[in-house]
Design the sequence.
């Protein structure tokens, strides 16, 4: 009996940034490469065929997603992106922007029919603005109600392909934190994938990551005490369990 096809994972991490004339535009993202390598390792041990790519330009990032349209896919497609960004945008290592809507368009049913029925899962570690989340005091059945805020606009994400879930490191308008030990968001994802929570349905797993970042993480140093609140959007029509496979043992010397 033939073996089922392996699910695929595309991990893109940008750490060094220069403009076309060689000027350094964004700071170096210390800690991001090692974190991406750890995530690639655990995905491999969960039986994903992983492609890990370092320091790719905006055009190269688009091309990587285009290449996925020509691949044979298994039960799921997972992509982790770690870079500088702003709302609706991630940056290539050439400091040029890649619109998330462009990535979603490449993977749309019309452009990429091979992925139409396959759940596509994105984890995006990038800033979505310049605001700092100072956190709130959590109380039960007491205190004055918070003033109402203008609703966030998710119109850009109505363009996500069918059968897709996208999880962001932070809320719209806010920064996402990273230090030499890694990011709050992807460290929480790594912890979940290495633990028993990986057996949860995807929406529950993402909610668990929200809890982990909200209650167990805060910035240190210059931004001491600042918080981060991941969020996700999905149009999946059923519960999926993309990380429930048994973890394979690491090879000696890994």
Sequence:
């Amino acid at each position: 009996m033939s073996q089922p096809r392996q699910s695929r994972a595309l991990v893109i991490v940008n750490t060094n940034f220069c403009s076309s004339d060689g000027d350094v535009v964004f700071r170096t993202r210390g800690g991001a490469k090692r974190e991406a390598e750890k995530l690639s390792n655990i995905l491999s041990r969960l039986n994903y065929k992983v492609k890990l790519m370092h320091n790719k330009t905006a055009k190269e990032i688009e091309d990587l997603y285009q290449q996925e349209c020509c691949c044979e896919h298994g039960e799921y497609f997972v992509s982790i992106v770690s870079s500088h960004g702003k709302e609706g945008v991630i940056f290539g290592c050439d400091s040029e922007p890649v619109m998330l809507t462009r990535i979603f368009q490449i993977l749309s049913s019309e452009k990429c029919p091979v992925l139409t029925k396959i759940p596509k899962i994105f984890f995006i570690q990038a800033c979505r603005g310049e605001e700092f989340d100072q956190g709130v005091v959590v109380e039960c059945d007491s205190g004055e109600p918070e003033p109402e805020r203008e609703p966030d606009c998710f119109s850009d994400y109505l363009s996500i392909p069918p059968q897709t879930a996208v999880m962001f490191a932070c809320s719209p308008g806010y920064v996402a934190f990273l230090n030499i030990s890694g990011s709050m968001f992807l460290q929480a994802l790594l912890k979940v994938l290495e633990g028993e929570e990986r057996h949860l349905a995807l929406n529950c797993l993402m909610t668990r990551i929200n809890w982990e970042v909200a209650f167990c993480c805060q910035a240190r140093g210059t931004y001491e005490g600042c918080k981060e609140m991941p969020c996700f959007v999905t149009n999946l029509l059923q519960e999926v369990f993309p990380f429930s496979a048994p973890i394979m043992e690491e090879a000696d010397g890994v």
Notes: The first strand starts at residue 7 and ends at 13. The first helix runs from residue 32 to 45.
